[in-house]
Amino acid sequence: MKRIFFAAVFAGLLLLSACHGNDQPGVNQEKSDTAFAIIGKVTGQDSGLIYLRHRESGKIDSFALDHGFFKFNGIADTAELCTIEFDGHSKTFFLENGKISMLIKKDSLRYAQITGTRTQDEYNYFKDQLSKPVTDRMDETDKAYDV
Predict the structure, then answer these.
(1) How far is CA 88 from CA 8, 40, 43, 117, in A?
(2) What DSSP element (H or E) covers 90?
(3) pLDDT digits (tens, 9 = 90+) for 46-82
(4) Which of 26, 67, 116, 127 is least enclosed, having the fewest CB within 10 Å?
(5) 19, pLDDT greater than 50
(6) Rounded to 5 degrees, what angle do the CA atoms 17, 19, 23 make?
(7) Which long-range contacts (CB under 8 A, 24 or more apart) does 130-133 make?
(8) Is residue 122 within 8 Å of 13, Cβ to Cβ?
(9) Are 79 and 95 in contact (CB under 8 A)?
(10) Is there a contact between 23 and 29 (Cβ–Cβ < 8 Å)?
(11) 114 by DSSP, 3-state: which?
């Protein structure tokens, strides 16, 4: 079931990306961002290690939290599916050149807010639109059982 969901999300993202094309037709655009910077904060946690796992290459970077803050830098050739891992939990996101912001609550990495690049923001929008009917229905069901 999870694989079908992720396949549908990924297919939707590809479709959205293909529909956007160049912002200015006929103009050869270069990437304005030639590197990525992930800047994040883990609320409720001052120290510990946070990991960035590149799914394609298997490369793992780590950073020791400094008063809850962390930062990763590098260069991405293309948008890449990665995971951020902390305290035994992980969250998938799209890594590409640009500034990426992450806000993570200590015990809920699953609900981390990750924004800042075009692909990730489109993924967030698509995921929110896709999951809203399901979460609304789940809320109704939970209320019915709370009687």
Answers:
(1) 27, 18, 16, 26
(2) strand 89-95
(3) 999 999 999 989 999 999 999 999 999 999 999 999 9
(4) 26
(5) no
(6) 85
(7) 130/8, 130/9, 130/12
(8) yes
(9) yes
(10) yes
(11) strand
Average pLDDT over the chain, rounded to whole?
A: 82
Segment 15-24 mean pLDDT: 42
- Our measurement of the distance from residue 16's CA atom to the centroid of its chain's CA atoms, rounded to an integer in Å, reads 16
Instruction: Tokens for 142, please give them.
Output: 């939970």
> Scanning the structure block, which residue is given the tokens 């990525």?
36
Distance between CA 29 and CA 112 in Å, rounded? 32
Instruction: Tell me how far apart the alpha carbons of residues 92 and 34 are, in angstroms, rounded to a whole number.
Output: 22
Report, as an integer, the average pLDDT of 78-88: 94
Q: Which of 10-14, 92-96, 106-110 has the lowest mean pLDDT?
A: 10-14
Give the number of residues written for the chain: 147
